Model the fold of this input.
Amino acid sequence: MMRGPGHGGGRRAFLTEEEKENKPEINKELLKRVFSYLKPYWKQLLLVWIAIILSAVFSMIPAIITGRIIDDGLIARDFRLLSLLILASFGVLIASNLLDLFVSYLNSWISQRISFDMRNKMYSKLQAMSHRFFTSSKQGETISRMTSDIGGVQSVIAGTLTNILSNLAILATALVAMYRMNWILATLGVIIVPLFAIPTKKVGRTRWELTLESQRVADELNQMLNETLSVSGQLLVKLFTNEELEYERYEGFNEEMFHLNIKESMAGRWFRMVISTLTNIGPMLIYLAGGALIIIYGNESLSVGDITVMVALLGRMYRPVNQLLNIQVDLIRSMALFTRIFDYFDMEVEIENSPKAIIPSTMRGDIEFRDVVFYYEKEVPILKNLSFKLEGGRSIAIVGPSGAGKSTLINLIPRLYDVVDGQLLIDGHDVRELDLHFLRSNVGIVTQDSYLFNGTIRENLLYAKADASEEELISACKEANIHDFIISLPDGYDSLVGNRGLKLSGGEKQRLSIARVILKDPPILIFDEATSSLDSISESLIQEAIDPLIASRTSLVIAHRLSTIMAADEIFVLEDGRVVERGSHSKLVEGKGLYRELYETQFKKALEQEGLYS
Done:
């Protein structure tokens, strides 16, 4: 349906200051890349464009037939011809609407398909990004690329691109028809049309600026209400006897809002008055000029019906002219959308599988750090020429002050990050040479913050091994000391855990995470603060689950609790990115190094609180 003057569809016909500042450079390379997503669907697009042109022609025919209806039907008093012309007009109208429906369907299909392709590519790209990307970028921005931006591309394909062609087709067919009838009236119409569009653009900017200003005042007003009408805010106002001061502030905001709303309302009213005047002036000028040509100059080729058709075609020209005047704005917004998406597509994948990746038949679990250097920022080194060996099947506990590099060390093993210098070897192979899927399948990690998906206990366990049998699930949960708790629930293994496992306690989530790792059955196990921030009962149950696991696998345990540390074969003391001490608890506690200091300040105090030390 054609929109009359004054209806902009809610779209801003100008660029904001932020959009001007961040507008992309529209060049051949960018356009070529954009059209590469359209190329697979060129047949459908060609069909859309042919249908758009036909629709523009068909939709113009009823206006032309109107001239025949007036001249040959009404004025000539030929009722039979009048009836045929009306039926023809009705038939063409139906055909035009059916074509519009077909274009709408194809547009929707193409735009949805391109969005489908882009979402798949974006998700695949994000899955390939390293852990560093997710720890350093804003989650909301990442989700916005996946949803809002790609959703915007759908609107661009279905809207902007096809609207440009549709508007050009409507404008071209209208101009051709008008000039075929009478070049003088057609030229007059072309001169008049911009008079509709220019005020629309100007008043649109004015109203938008007023709306932004109103929103700013409304935000300040709401902030004041939230602060002064809350329980704490009201108490503060009363205690400092500032009721009158706050009332004056509120009155000031309220008055500012009052004046802005009046301005915005009147800007719209003045605009509608101007457009209404111009809308009526246009046809009047066409009628006046047409009348002069017929009455004064005796132009016999021009009829009353022709003048009526010219007026109808003039009305058809408003919308396409208005939108084509804003084509630069639409293109900039569309290209900015594609640019943001392409920025993500072009991000460097930091951790990649080697083209000649090795997949050993087995993994013993021997781990060696050989002069490993790592930093997130070059100025702040985390690991400094770190070297140590851990034989397969043995376990180490890693202790040290905060910031010593403990978590960084274990994150290098499954290649969540890559070493900056030196080598990390597993079974004699540099981890960068091992197949990434093979490597991570053979490493199990239980973190301090156990993450569970919003699903059932069974679904969360099967995430480790999708084809696990019921017997395997139960066995793993028994080993993790969580089976009895699960069967006590009304729905057992089909109980929902809630978002991030909120329906479970910290200890229950931790034991489920351990059961999940047991189900995975990797030769290398990593426990990162797995028992911190838990009560003594939960810690005891988790410790009972951990002890047999670290006894049979290559294990690295980061812990602050002495009971967890003493279960390991050896203790490594990490300080400032280096192993400064290593040995058994008894040997290290007899020394005068960092471990003794940690024992005196942390471990011993915890034991005293639990009544295990005297």
